[in-house]
Amino acid sequence: MDNPSWLQTALGYLDLRMFEETWTALDDLPDDQRNSLEALKLRVTCRLDEERFPDALELCREMCTRFPEEHTGFIQGAFCLHEMGKTDKAMAWLQKGPHSLQSEATYFYNLGCYDLALGRVESACAWLIQAFEMEPSYYEDALKDPDFKPIIDRIAEMREADDEYLT
Questions:
Q1: Helical residues (DSSP H) of 35-150, grouped into ranges
Q2: Structure confidence at residue 6 as a pLDDT band (50, 70, 90)
Q3: Residue 13: predicted pLDDT
Q4: Is the pLDDT of residue 21 over 60?
Q5: What percent of the chain shows pLDDT beyond 90?
Q6: Do the Cβ atoms of 132 and 156 come closer than 8 Å?
Q7: Which residues contact 58 (CB under 8 A, 6 or more apart)?
Q8: CA 38 to CA 129: how far, in whole Å?
Q9: Are 36 and 17 in contact, with CB atoms under 8 Å apart?
């Protein structure tokens, strides 16, 4: 299904990093569209791109309340907390999401990131293994992710071991 024109317009502005125009496009929507899940996701994305993490977190709270089965509010809300230096709260936020979150590799990848930031290396590696099993492309992401720099050698070893197992 194609995105509605209002969404395409707002996404276009956001892609160009024209934040004021993005907000204007979203604020000018009729109530039924302004309050939709798609509009709320776009608001969160805009605040994240603006690096306005407390504001993005408030929008994530709203999303989690209004759309409790939607994963975005939990994943992005945890990211906001992590970026705000509240990684322990990010971990708790993510883990209080719906059970269906465990079907997403991003869930385990982010838990690995947060555990590593909290100094729990072994636990971080265990989370990452789950993410890599679900989504092998995350190996490459982790190797480039500055958050995983302290364990980059272990990630490379995990990938090599996985490659050897598969061949």
A1: 37-49, 53-66, 71-83, 87-95, 105-117, 121-134, 138-144
A2: low
A3: 67
A4: yes
A5: 68
A6: no
A7: none
A8: 31
A9: no
Amino acid 78 reads A
Structure tokens at 35: 């309050």
- The predicted-structure confidence for 79-134, as pLDDT tens digits, reads as follows 999 999 999 999 999 999 999 999 999 999 999 999 999 999 999 999 999 999 99
Sequence-separated (6 or more) residues with CB below 8 Å from residue 116: 124, 147, 148, 150, 151
Cα 45 to Cα 158: distance, rounded to the nearest angstrom: 32
Q: What count of Cα atoms within 13 Å lies in the side-chain half-sphere of residue 155? A: 28
The residue written with tokens 């465990």 in the block is 102
Residues 6+ apart with CB under 8 A from 163: none
φ, ψ of residue 136 to 5 degrees: the values are: -55, -25
What residue has token string 């999401």?
97
pLDDT tens across 43-76, in order? 899 899 999 999 999 999 999 999 999 999 999 9
Please state, as a whole number, how many other Cβ atoms lie within 10 Å of the Cβ of residue 10: 27
What is the rounded CA–CA span in Å between residue 92 and residue 25?
34
Q: Which amino acid is residue 50, in one-letter code?
A: E
Taking the CA atoms of the chain, what radius of gyration do you get in angstroms? 18
